[in-house]
Amino acid sequence: SGGHELPSFHHPNTKGGPTCAVIALKCPHIAVTIVDLNQARIDAWNSPDFALPIYEPGLEEVVRQARGRNLFFSTDVDKAIQEADLIFVSVNTPTKKSGVGAGFGADLHYVESATRRIAAVATSSKIVVEKSTVPCRTAESMRTILEANCKPGCRFDILSNPEFLAEGTAIGDLFKPDRVLIGSLQTQEGKDACAGLAGVYANWVPKDRILTVGLWSSELSKLAANAMLAQRISSINALSAICEATGANIDEVAHAVGFDSRVGPKFLRASVGFGGSCFQKDILNLVYLSESLHLPQVAEYWRQVVEMNEYQKSRFSKSVVDTLFNTITGKHIAVLGFAFKADTGDTRESPAITIVRDFLAERAYVTIYDPKVDEAQIWQDLSEACPSLSLEQIKKQVTIAHSALDACKQKEAIVIATEWKEFREIDWQTVYDDMTKPAFVFDGRLLVDADKLRQIGFKVKVIGRGERL
Ligand code: UDX
């Protein structure tokens, strides 16, 4: 089988590579070729010192074991298509920036060009697996393109096989998935193709966790799963605002609510807002889909999950300004963490970007530290978030530090935007001694031991806690 990736504008595709690497590891009898048109990215996958193009705990070990054995990386897309029996289309599907559905609909440009390439190049029958998250009924379009362009004797079966892994835990999620979902047409050929792919996963996933459903159910399930996960976070974040206003404690509320086995304890952590490449994009897709289906109430319902997230981010920025005596102009603030969550270098839709943008609009000086995000990525994200500022102007206000301690020196306030474990282990006494007083800490991730910090002398504000500073 072969993976197929096309380059995206800035971000490497973060799911296709790990998924296909794990398939290769678990199925030594299957040759897996991951292809990408981007030479630099393929060179990174092939690099002798395993300087892989994405950071994901455990990935290097997987690649070390399988690379050269039955896992290959190449830019020769056509050859890989010709040789493959099964092709994963795992390209990025960003939100459209212009045209119909701008800001909502998925940009299917990469999916379509990958599909057309397969049709043009294939000389034998293939199972084509839609792995990217796509709007409902995309598989249908892929099938139309493939059928209209295929050569005599070639048949294409389309499957939908959405990926549910989360970044930072990708390898663990792939080794032990809650479920593998495969959608197919309910024809005999569709079911046979489905059984073929299920057979690949059955090499390491228990059979009762491999779910087979109709094509459109599969496509919709991926959007639904992400929308409902994001909805949980927006719900808990909405409650965190009530906690702050009343003196209740969101940790205690989440714990109490999560004890109900129907609700469950996971994914109820209040935060400065959710980020990542999936949640917002998939909800907006669902909103767009609902609108195109003339279901405005349904669209409005899901849109609110994203709006609550925007509110949470701006509420957090505002509380920093309010607490710092209603102005942060000319003040120095450290922002710890820039990735959208811990254990990843990915910054897509990271709440840290919005917060820093808000601080810049107030003309504060911001020092950013993140253990895994590249400097160039930070500059790029801030340039995009602040189109009215030149990079030069941004650089006058923003500094990038190389350690948390450095970032915090002589600052008026510290903002925790990502839940990196190392921020819990900072030498807070040293940080305190070097800060302007009163020294403020704003914990947007329920990370620090607020009581301990208060004993040192900090003024601490934690998301979802109503206590006084
Ligand atoms: C998500 C889904 O979990 C995954 O199944 C899907 O395949 C892709 O989208 P990912 O975006 O990698 O994965 O990360 P996830 O762990 O879901 O976190 C998303 C965002 O929500 C992060 O910004 C995270 O910090 C935030 N979050 C998560 C919370 O604020 N509170 C929580 O309780 C959980």
TrEMBL record:
Active site location: 278 (nucleophile)
One annotated Gene Ontology cellular component of this protein: nucleus
Domain UDP-glucose/GDP-mannose dehydrogenase C-terminal: from-to ranges: 334-450
Enzyme class, first EC level, given as a word: oxidoreductase
Chain residues that bind NAD(+): 36, 41, 91-95, 132-133, 167, 278-281, 348
Enzyme Commission number(s) from the entry: 1.1.1.22
GO biological process, one term: glycosaminoglycan biosynthetic process
Reactions that this protein is recorded to catalyse: UDP-alpha-D-glucose + 2 NAD(+) + H2O = UDP-alpha-D-glucuronate + 2 NADH + 3 H(+)
Claim: Kinase is one of the keywords in the record: no
Pathway(s) it belongs to: Nucleotide-sugar biosynthesis; UDP-alpha-D-glucuronate biosynthesis; UDP-alpha-D-glucuronate from UDP-alpha-D-glucose: step 1/1
Superkingdom per UniProt: Eukaryota
Keywords tagged on the record: NAD, Oxidoreductase
GO molecular function, one term: NAD binding
UniProt keyword Transport, yes or no: no
InterPro entries from the UniProt entry: 6-PGluconate_DH-like_C_sf, NAD(P)-bd_dom_sf, UDP-Glc/GDP-Man, UDP-Glc/GDP-Man_DH_C, UDP-Glc/GDP-Man_DH_C_sf, UDP-Glc/GDP-Man_DH_dimer, UDP-Glc/GDP-Man_DH_N, UDPglc_DH_euk
PANTHER family: UDP-GLUCOSE 6-DEHYDROGENASE, UDP-GLUCOSE DEHYDROGENASE/UDP-MANNAC DEHYDROGENASE
Family designation: Belongs to the UDP-glucose/GDP-mannose dehydrogenase family.
Name of this chain's protein: UDP-glucose 6-dehydrogenase
Organism for this UniProt entry: Hermanssonia centrifuga
